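In keeping with the milestone schedule agreed at the kick-off meeting, the structural modelling team has produced records for the first pair of proteins. Each record is given below as a sequence line and a structure-token line. The laboratory manager (R.T.) confirmed that both were archived under the project's standard naming scheme.
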Amino acid sequence: MTQPIKLPFYAKLACILITLISFAYIFCIAKDVITPVLMAFLFAVLLLPIFSFLNKKLRFPRHLAAIICVLAFAAFIVGILVFISFEVRDMANDFETIKKNANAFIADLHRFIKDNFNVSIGEQKKYIDNVTKDSVKNGNATISSALISITDLLLDCTIIPIYTFLFLIYKDHFILFLAKLIDQENHSTLKDILSQIKVSINNYIASLILEMIIVSVLTSLGLWIIGVKYFILLGLITGILNLIPYIGIFIAGIITVLASLTGSGETSIILGILVVNIIVQLIDNNLLVPLIINSKVEINAFVSIIGIIIGGAGGGIAGMFLAIPLLAILKIIFDRIESMEAWGYLMGNHVPRKFTWRAKKTKGVS
């Protein structure tokens, strides 16, 4: 039996860093291919209990069970989108009211700037015209990029269900491949890693859904109290956009402010919306995320923020969404490989015990 090669610490560190950089580089250059595959993998793991129930308990054929799972999940997503589209259609009927209230709000804002900053309304409009001209120059490029983004989105919406179906069908095939790739004495570790990955991803996505529901309810309740029209729709949009770390809540706030103009352009309503969003975010960040999200994935905030930033830089919004579950998978792997335990501990949110340095005794020194 061959003995494993023992490398010095600096060689191990170099290998780990080179591997991580290589994976990050491959993801950046092939994100259009890898991102849908990773999204489909997460959805397949989420649907796996339903698939197993249909296939093993009810004796459905594998293909039929996979089709039912994918169609049920797609119907759930389409149902939410249909509800939003109907509400948005009703909101579009109030476009003239929105335009009128927006003009009134802009006029009030001009007067506020004039009274407090001594900038005349003419100078303000001149500055806005200059900015608008610059925006028009870049309009064609913006429209082209928007069309490309919409095309990519439609392609992903088509191919992700197909990938999800294939993941469910070939689940055992992929597991057998990993088993052939790993030495037999490590099969128990591999089995433990795969089971923990399934539990962690299911818990994470279930926690996200629960967080989305709570944020939607709290936001809808707050908007209803201050008298905002379409408060249910706006609360649901806020809950969905809150799934996008950091930037989602800002986008939801802008949409809510614009929608509030269907009823009134009063500054008090807009300030009330900002207060509601701030309160909901405080509850979300200080109660929901620590209790619901972090308790499931066990990733500390420092590593989470860095991972989300890197994911956003490499894969955009989808990369930000994928960052946390991928970090959770890495932590599960690191925790179960002896030489990588330190990295798993670094990613975790464990409260460290008091650590005391132990000096190594030297021979001949009393």
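The second protein of the pair:
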Amino acid sequence: MPKQKFYVVWEGRTPGIYTTWEAAKRQVEGYAQAKYKSFESRAAAEKALKESYWAYVKKSDSKPPSAEKVPRSAIVKESVAVDAACSGNPGDMEYQGVYTADGKRLFHVGPLEDGTNNIGEFLALVHALAMLKQQGKPSMPIYSDSKIAQGWVKKGKCNTKLERTGRNDTLFELIERAERWLAANNITNPILKWETESWGEIPADFGRK
């Protein structure tokens, strides 16, 4: 009987320790820059999970993240890509979501006055999550190139310091609605980081850079 192995996923859809490769594979397959490794005991796996992935790979085996190039073959085509654009900071802001495989627009909101790009990225992610839930697609990945927006979604809070001006009341109503949606719904869709350095601009980019 083969010896039990324990699989540590540092970066994947749901980081943690898995007791079968099949379970671990579901967390890392198609996930850009996934980091994982097998261990012979649960104690070793638990220790590793608390530490850095880079402490468990040889320097000759891998390069640090800043030097990595992620192949385009890692992109999950059956997914949604979101992005935002803002003219000024604050300024007129809009956001959209497209089908990653062909760039077909799925939704577009704005422009909204006195917004920021980070708020747009946050609203775009929540909009995509709500849309996919309504469509019965709880497992379709969503790509975003904003770590800040991904962090806000994870915490369920748009942590902006933007002040109300009267002109952006509609924007703040959208933020509050998005936060209520996050509080009332479990996120099942993987939110993946779009690797701009390796893949170029995200398909939902407005092309104004």
